[in-house]
Design a protein that fits this description.
single chain, 2 domains, two-stranded parallel sheet
Length: about 160
């Protein structure tokens, strides 16, 4: 996003700590990452390392809440990534409605977020909705062609299920 002052605002493209570090190492003053987005990335990384599911959920919910309060970043890739992480957590804890809600927001914000479609496929399979799971798997392959072989195997497995 090009700002009025000629600088680029790239927080909509950065969703991981490694990506943020790479951008910051460019030392290009025209590239900016919103401080809240940078903090959110840091908290998401920490959430992956904490021990309990409750702690992970608390960390991710705090990230989503902070991002949602700022119109500049509430539809950023950072938000999509946070929603996808929390959806995965909800899927693992069988909170399927909440998982689906988060993952739908993630895919709406970032239609190219391939992991989100993998998570959506898991949610749909858990809900015994094979056609929707297959559609999500196909979207996963479309957004990340390197997984086509794995997706084909998963689709074959789903089609073979009663």
């Amino acid at each position: 996003v090009l700002k009025n002052d000629g600088s680029e605002d790239i927080h909509h493209e950065v969703s991981t700590a490694n990506a943020a570090v790479a951008v910051l190492e460019l030392s290009d003053p025209s590239l900016k990452i919103h401080p809240t987005a940078l903090a959110a990335i840091n908290v998401m990384e920490k959430a992956q390392k904490v021990g309990t599911i409750e702690e992970k959920e608390r960390f991710l919910t705090s990230v989503i809440s902070a991002l949602d309060k700022n119109p500049e970043i509430q539809s950023s890739k950072v938000m999509a990534h946070a929603r996808a992480l929390r959806a995965q957590l909800f899927l693992e804890t069988r909170q399927l409605g909440m998982a689906r809600e988060d993952i739908m927001v993630a895919t709406q914000i970032d239609p190219s977020h391939s992991t989100a479609y993998r998570i959506l496929a898991g949610i749909e399979e858990s809900n015994h909705n094979k056609p929707a799971a297959i559609a999500a798997l196909s979207k996963w392959a479309d957004t990340n062609p390197s997984f086509r072989s794995k997706v084909s195997s998963e689709i074959a497995r789903l089609r073979g299920m009663p």
